[in-house]
Design a protein that fits this description.
This protein is an alpha/beta fold. The chain has two domains: about 190 residues, Glycogen Phosphorylase B (Rossmann fold); about 180 residues, Glycogen Phosphorylase B (Rossmann fold), CATH 3.40.50.2000. About 45% of the residues lie in helices and about 15% in strands. The longest helix has 17 residues. Bound molecules: ligand GMT.
Length: about 375
């Protein structure tokens, strides 16, 4: 199949999912066209089945806001005609579903039918999409999609609750590529760069937005390190970073915390980790938690959104109410203090992650594509 994928190319869950999906589809022989404003961060190598088409928005003094949707929909029409693309899959409703709808209409005018699938990822529904200034257009463009998927049952329910959606929403959970997590990767790791042998390694990865509650991460770690030797790996970048650094200074633990910034070494860092913290205000799914679990890392998370569909309480980790950092620290210590308990949680985390293996999830998308194209 010839498929166009539209996504955000930056660090962030929806872009990662879209890129990994496209790369795996290409490996399976499909022709994949990524159409976005810069090369997706995980799209390291182009191969004969992978194309990248950049959307440029020329500056013009009259524009206070650059009309990205216009440029994107134009590019979509041009690429669909040039490469005879059969299907459009947009990730993150805003503004991609809207631009996709415009492209569909322009193509229809030229006698070309382009089926469109919209995948809802989270904040496009819960935070941004629900804003009254966007809601009308978001509702319209979701309803105009030929098929709609969401990455968790929780997000599906929230979408139906917040918007007047007339389409069926199919839940296709996010996935993980487990094959790359081979034992060989462990052997080449240099753990001593991050922590001493006797120290537990605690990790958090996100875009450091307020919704991730990274000050809670620091507070939980502060309580952990009071009882056991430990180091905290803070991976990512975003608006809350400075506040978190300041809190580490205030608490006198700056020497125990490493701020990596955005990193391409996430797999390596996770392979060293003993525990992952994700105390978010909300997560539609929590891909970062799944990535940690795929490296046998137990997760301490909040219980909001779709996190309970990924992290199983008392099995792969623990879930607490948002902001309950005391309970999160107690739960973390109950795992970290005992080698046998830690080993059990690690094993369980991997077992649950295996249910989300790409080989199990990808056929769900492939089947949907076939249905959409042949309809
Ligand atoms: O919240 C983020 O970090 C970014 C955002 C995105 O779209 O890139 O993530 C959302 O999509 C991810 C992939 O489906 C989910 O794993 C995240 O849980 C979701 N974030 C939220 O719901 C806050």
């Amino acid at each position: 199949m010839k498929i166009a994928i539209v996504c955000y190319p930056t660090f962030g869950g929806s872009g990662v999912v879209a890129t990994e999906l496209g790369l795996e589809l290409a490996r399976r022989g499909h022709e994949i066209h990524f159409i976005t404003y810069s090369q997706p961060v995980r799209l390291a190598l182009l191969n004969p089945n992978v194309y990248y088409h950049e959307v440029n928005v020329p500056e013009y003094p009259l524009f206070h806001f650059q009309p990205y949707e216009l440029a994107l929909s134009s590019k979509l029409v041009d690429m669909v005609k040039l490469y005879k693309i059969e299907l459009l899959h947009v990730h993150y409703a805003i503004p991609h579903a809207y631009a996709g709808y415009m492209a569909k209409q322009m193509l229809k005018d030229q006698g070309i039918n382009l089926p469109m699938i919209t995948t809802l990822h989270g904040t496009d529904i819960t935070l941004v999409g629900n804003h009254p200034f966007y809601k009308t257009a978001v509702t319209f463009s979701i309803n105009q999609s030929d098929y709609v998927t969401s990455v968790s049952q929780s997000l599906k329910e929230e979408t139906l609750h917040l918007f007047d959606i007339k389409k069926e929403i199919l839940v296709i959970p996010n996935f993980i590529e487990l094959d790359k997590n081979g034992i060989d990767s462990y052997s080449s790791c240099k753990r001593y760069v991050m922590a001493n042998e006797n120290e537990r390694i605690i990790t958090h990865i996100s875009n450091f937005r307020p919704i991730k509650r990274i000050l809670d991460v620091v507070k939980i770690f502060y309580k952990i390190q009071q009882e056991i030797p430990a180091k905290l790996m803070m991976v990512g970048d975003g608006p809350e970073k400075e506040k978190a650094e300041y809190l580490c200074h205030q608490l006198g633990i700056f020497d125990k915390v490493i701020f990596f910034g955005n990193s391409n070494e996430i797999d390596k860092i996770l392979s060293y980790s003993d525990l992952f913290l994700l105390p978010s205000e909300t997560e539609s799914f929590g891909l970062a938690a799944l990535e940690a679990m795929a490296w046998s890392v137990p997760v301490i998370s909040s219980n909001s959104g779709g996190l309970s569909e990924v992290n199983f309480d008392g099995i792969s980790g623990y879930l607490s109410n948002v902001g309950n950092t005391d309970e999160m620290a107690v739960n973390a210590l109950s795992i970290l203090k005992d080698n046998a308990i830690l080993a059990r949680f690690k094993k369980n985390a991997l077992t649950i992650a295996e249910k989300f293996d790409i080989n199990a999830i990808l056929p769900l998308y492939e089947n949907l594509y076939r249905t959409a194209i042949n309809k």
